[in-house]
Design goal:
By secondary structure, this protein is an alpha+beta fold. It is built from 10 helices and 13 strands.
């Protein structure tokens, strides 16, 4: 059986996930503890693993409780990074190291969906709290290269604010309105193709973004310079 994913909203805008097959499940950023437990019970799933996209408290706050109540194994980020995958019901969930937002940031890729944590949001990216812009650039480039149909399932719902910023930078981009029409707070998602069409931090090679950076006197000669310059734009 192919793996599936369900999204759970908790807190003001956090998003948790359960990746599951016929009988086993993996929780990622499982802050919606009781609803995740109820979901697994309803579906007859054994919650085998609990993991996090990164170590910030708003993502890790439910992990210990969830694992204790379900009898699940907590998978640390160093272990996940080293092993490179998690097996759920015999199917591999790929672990992608994406340092930048934090140095321990990970994304989880299963089937055609990506749990992107705070590395990639729908229509924007996370803050570079690590201070390593070069690492963040490499992580973004890795995600940009995923198949265009890949579903982006982020760690927060910041869609409305992110689209407003995208429109501020590229007011003539018609893809922004189409993206906004597809937004559904009940299941927040986009695709890599959508991000390439709208997300400014995926569009640093576009002429409109380059013109904006040049107008502000920022370097644009290389891809990294364009990405780094864009990170300075407000």
């Amino acid at each position: 059986m192919a793996l599936s994913v369900t999204q759970f909203r908790y807190g003001p805008d956090n998003l948790a996930y359960v990746v599951f097959g016929a009988s086993e499940a993996l929780a990622v950023d499982g802050g919606a503890v009781q609803r995740i437990l109820a979901f697994c019970k309803e579906k007859g799933l054994a919650l085998r693993f609990a993991a996090n996209t990164h170590g910030h408290p708003d993502h890790t706050s439910g992990t210990a409780e969830l694992a204790a109540e379900a009898g699940a194994e907590i998978l640390s980020n160093p272990r996940l990074k080293k092993e490179g995958f998690v097996t759920v019901d015999g199917e591999r969930v790929r672990v992608i190291s994406t340092p930048g937002h934090t140095m321990d940031s990970l994304c989880f890729l299963a089937e055609s969906f990506l749990l992107s944590g705070d590395t990639l949001f729908n229509a924007t990216i996370g803050n570079c709290f690590s201070g390593d812009i070069a690492a963040f650039y490499r992580s973004v480039a890795t995600l940009m290269a995923l198949p265009p149909e890949t579903l982006v399932l982020a760690g927060h719902d910041y869609v409305e604010e992110s689209l407003a910023f995208a429109h501020h930078l590229e007011p003539g981009n018609p893809a922004i309105e189409a993206y906004e029409k597809k937004y559904d707070p009940r299941f927040v998602r986009s695709t890599i193709a959508d991000e390439l069409a709208v997300n400014p931090y995926f569009r640093f090679n576009q002429s409109s973004i380059m013109a904006l950076l040049k107008k502000r006197g920022l370097p644009v000669e290389t891809e990294f310079e364009r990405f780094s310059s864009l990170m300075k734009v407000a």
